[in-house]
Amino acid sequence: MSRRLILMITDHEGTRCINIHSIFRQLGLYLLMFVFVLIIFGVVSIRAFKDEITSISLLNEIIMKQYEKIQEKNAYLNAQIEQRSEEIMLVGDRVGDLESVIGVDGTTQPVDDLRERIDIASLTGSQKAFVMKFIPNGYPLDYYKRISADFGYRVHPLFFTKHLHTGIDFATDIGTPIYATADGVVEFAQMGHNGGFGNLIKLDHSFGFRTYYAHLNKIVVKRGGFVKKGQIIAYSGNSGVSTGPHLHYEVRFLGSVLNPRNFIEWTMSNFSSIFENERSVLWQSLLMTINNLMEQVPQEELQL
Ligand SMILES: [Zn+2]
Predict the structure, then answer these.
(1) Most-buried pick from 42, 134, 205, 300 (CB within 10 A)?
(2) Which comes out higher in pLDDT, residue 9 or 302?
(3) pLDDT per position as a tens digit, 71-123
(4) What is the DSSP secondary structure assignment for residue 237, as one 8-state letter?
(5) Which is nearest to 228 in space by CA: 186, 182, 188, 264?
(6) How crowded is residue 214: how many other Cβ atoms within 10 Å of its Cβ?
(7) Using an 8 Å Cβ cutoff, are 92 and 195 in contact?
(8) Alpha-carbon distance 47 to 42, whole Å?
(9) CB neighbours (10 Å) of residue 1?
(10) Neighbours of ion ligand 1 (CB under 5 A)
């Protein structure tokens, strides 16, 4: 026999019995139902959350794909910008080339007269030293591995288009000191793309000459600063449109590009070589100007 609690209430109407046990049983049943409902609610909400998470990650995936597409488009546009800048640079080269073609007709004749009018052999040491100080000559760097590209027409290594390579490329380690090849003033010294040249220095020299030093790593001079021949102006790098660490060196005269090889190989011991090799400069006129300049200044005052 199980124990049962029975409440008996007696009043003037008689006696009633309340079975406490069955009340507890009912309460237990309600509790069970409540727990059951709670579990069902829990399961349903977890499912709803799961669905939400799935749809959010789907959305995330879609956004990621869109982002990737935008990135790709961005890379493509950047490449196009680079190509356009390169094309602008090439147009610049062609203009320079045209200028030199135009210049040739007017300059070859006076060069032929040179030997008649000025005897180069009779130039004094200090006159030669003056020329070698103010007109670009020698190498812009002490050390390089090899000349990776010469001046002249070539197929561009990155764009496969035929164009004039406007300078000479010295393949060298990043950080090689770069020297000014003549006294001058810094006309341009800027970090950046610079139409493919990368970090670039342009030096303005006397008598219409200009030198370019491109793809630099570090620039140590500022625009407007005066530099001496042999002074360190920068350290070589691999900036701009470049296939490897190198220095791109240019010599220009009145905006036209000249073959830098004639200038880098020009030294005191082969002084007259430049007059034979580079015929687009009126050397005759230039030497006479320098001659006149030096006659006006007493030799001992010229600290060359
Ligand atoms: Zn180059």
Answers:
(1) 205
(2) 9
(3) 888 888 887 777 777 667 766 666 656 655 555 433 444 444 544 456 676 78
(4) B
(5) 182
(6) 28
(7) yes
(8) 9
(9) 3
(10) 167, 169, 248
Give the C-alpha separation, 17 to 20, whole Å: 9
Of 19, 41, 37, the closest CA to residue 29 belongs to: 37
Distance (Å) of CA 79 to CA 82, 83, 87, 157, 196? 5, 6, 12, 15, 12
pLDDT in tens, 256-286: 999 999 999 999 888 988 988 998 899 888 8
Hunting for tokens 């400069």 — which residue is that? 281
pTM exceeding the 0.70 threshold for the entire prediction: no
Rounded to the nearest angstrom, the distance between the alpha carbon of 251 and the centre of ligand 1 is 12
CA of 243 to the centre of ligand 1 (A): 10
Q: Which residues contact 86 (CB under 8 A, 6 or more apart)?
A: 156, 158, 159, 195, 196, 241
- Ligand 1 centroid to residue 150 C-alpha, Å: 8
Alpha carbon of 271 to ligand 1 centroid (Å): 26
The single residue listed with the structure tokens 């021949």 is 229
Name the residue among 171, 186, 174 with its Cα closest to residue 235.
174
Ligand 1 mean position, distance from CA 252 (Å): 14
